[in-house]
TrEMBL record:
<dbReference type="InterPro" id="IPR036890">
    <property type="entry name" value="HATPase_C_sf"/>
</dbReference>
<keyword id="KW-1133">Transmembrane helix</keyword>
<dbReference type="GO" id="GO:0000155">
    <property type="term" value="F:phosphorelay sensor kinase activity"/>
</dbReference>
<comment type="function">
    <text>Member of the two-component regulatory system NreB/NreC involved in the control of dissimilatory nitrate/nitrite reduction in response to oxygen. NreB functions as a direct oxygen sensor histidine kinase which is autophosphorylated, in the absence of oxygen, probably at the conserved histidine residue, and transfers its phosphate group probably to a conserved aspartate residue of NreC. NreB/NreC activates the expression of the nitrate (narGHJI) and nitrite (nir) reductase operons, as well as the putative nitrate transporter gene narT.</text>
</comment>
<keyword id="KW-0472">Membrane</keyword>
<keyword id="KW-0812">Transmembrane</keyword>
<keyword id="KW-0004">4Fe-4S</keyword>
<dbReference type="Pfam" id="PF02518">
    <property type="entry name" value="HATPase_c"/>
</dbReference>
<dbReference type="InterPro" id="IPR011712">
    <property type="entry name" value="Sig_transdc_His_kin_sub3_dim/P"/>
</dbReference>
<keyword id="KW-0902">Two-component regulatory system</keyword>
<dbReference type="GO" id="GO:0046872">
    <property type="term" value="F:metal ion binding"/>
</dbReference>
<keyword id="KW-0963">Cytoplasm</keyword>
<feature type="transmembrane region" description="Helical">
    <location>
        <begin position="25"/>
        <end position="43"/>
    </location>
</feature>
<keyword id="KW-0408">Iron</keyword>
<keyword id="KW-0479">Metal-binding</keyword>
<dbReference type="InterPro" id="IPR005467">
    <property type="entry name" value="His_kinase_dom"/>
</dbReference>
<dbReference type="GO" id="GO:0005737">
    <property type="term" value="C:cytoplasm"/>
</dbReference>
Length: 341
């Protein structure tokens, strides 16, 4: 089967540059030839001499060689500037490549940092659950046994054992909250939509003045762990921001997977809260972290807001996510597209 190869963009640019140079040179040669033919046809030199004979004392007839020297000088001047700009262009390309390589390194580091953080969180959640949970349970059972044994004879011990049971229950609840924050409930068991539903339900209880709608479209059963946790953390951070900056807002969350082999997952969260002026520098790290997470999966992250017009963020992640390739020197997969209004 015949195949057709296409020139690379760099080769294409070089070809375009050469063709312009040739065309321009051809123009210069053609104009010179035309001028020579016209001069020969109309005896330009003789006419010029006749015209300027009267002004012999001003040496006007010496003008052509002087102009020739000036033209040669200008050509030399232009050539020097051209070489200079070429050198600057090469330097600039090298710097751009260096910047792209550093950006890719930076993204890879961020991606590794996020992975490490998630692994550590998962490990901590498991340890808290398995180790502390078990011991707290034993403490609670032992205290209940002491309570039962002491009940008739030792009212003081009975009271203390009740306090121990209460404290154990309190710590157990606290640890449960910590485990849920460290590793979202249901993400492993029920997948992203289920975990998000659970997360949003939690915020419905915590923020009764706000209203939340979660719309899920598409199949999310085949997402990788990194995609699941990234998309979950996006919504989690978005909802935390709602609790800080837009407690009474109407919040709409969309989780959509577009069909097709090159499909993508789009998460959008919009609220009608007070919004913010994005041209003013912000100190927080939440949005920066969101963008880093999304770009680490080769996606794009956009935010939009204006004072009084709510706040919106939108993340697009390729469904077949491939983390930023090591030493990717070319155009990074997900340009830092932060389209701030
Ligand atoms: N839903 C929102 N409504 C209005 N303003 C918002 C909203 N979300 C974010 N912002 C604005 O964007 C800024 C940056 O948000 P970001 O999450 O990065 O930081 P933060 O929440 O202030 O701090 P951090 O997340 O690091 O604890 C916020 O300080 C706030 O001004
Ligand atoms: Mg935040």
């Amino acid at each position: 089967m015949p195949t057709r190869s296409y020139p690379s963009p760099a080769a294409g640019k070089a070809v375009a540059r050469h063709s312009t140079v040739r065309r321009d040179l051809a123009c210069v040669v053609a104009i010179t030839v035309i001028a020579a033919v016209l001069c020969a046809t109309f005896d330009f030199g003789e006419r010029f001499y006749r015209w300027t004979r009267g002004a012999e004392r001003f040496q006007v007839d010496e003008l052509p060689p002087t102009l020739f020297v000036l033209a040669s000088g200008l050509a030399w001047f232009a050539w020097r500037r051209y070489r200079e700009s070429q050198r600057e262009l090469v330097l600039r390309r090298e710097l751009e490549e260096e910047a792209e390589r550093l950006l890719a390194d930076n993204r890879r580091l961020a991606s590794q940092g996020i992975d490490t953080q998630e692994n550590e969180r998962r490990h901590l959640a498991r340890e808290l659950h398995d180790e502390l949970g078990q011991y707290l349970n034993s403490i609670s059972l032992d205290a209940a046994r002491i309570r039962d044994l002491a009940a008739p004879r030792e009212p003081e011990i009975h009271r203390i054992s009740l306090a121990v049971i209460q404290s154990a229950h309190h710590v157990y609840r606290e640890i449960g909250g910590m485990i849920r924050r460290l590793r979202p409930i249901g993400l492993d068991e029920f997948g992203l939509p289920g975990a998000l539903e659970h997360c949003v339900d939690g915020w419905r209880e915590r923020l009764p003045d706000a209203s939340f709608t979660l719309t899920v479209e598409g199949d999310f059963s085949t997402l990788s762990d990194a995609q699941n946790i990234t998309l979950y953390r996006l919504v989690q951070e978005g909802l935390t921001n709602i609790s800080k900056f837009a407690r009474n807002a109407r919040v709409e969350i969309y989780l959509v997977r577009t069909a097709g082999e090159r499909g993508e997952i789009v998460v959008t969260m919009a609220d009608d809260g007070p919004g913010v002026d994005l041209s003013i520098p912000r100190k927080g790290l939440g949005l920066i972290g969101m963008r880093e997470r999304v770009e680490a999966l080769g996606g794009e992250f956009h935010i939009a807001s204006e004072p009084g017009s709510g706040f919106l963020f939108c993340a697009r992640v390729p469904a077949q996510a491939s983390p930023v390739a090591p030493n990717a020197a070319g155009e990074p997969a997900g340009a830092a597209a932060n389209s701030e209004k």
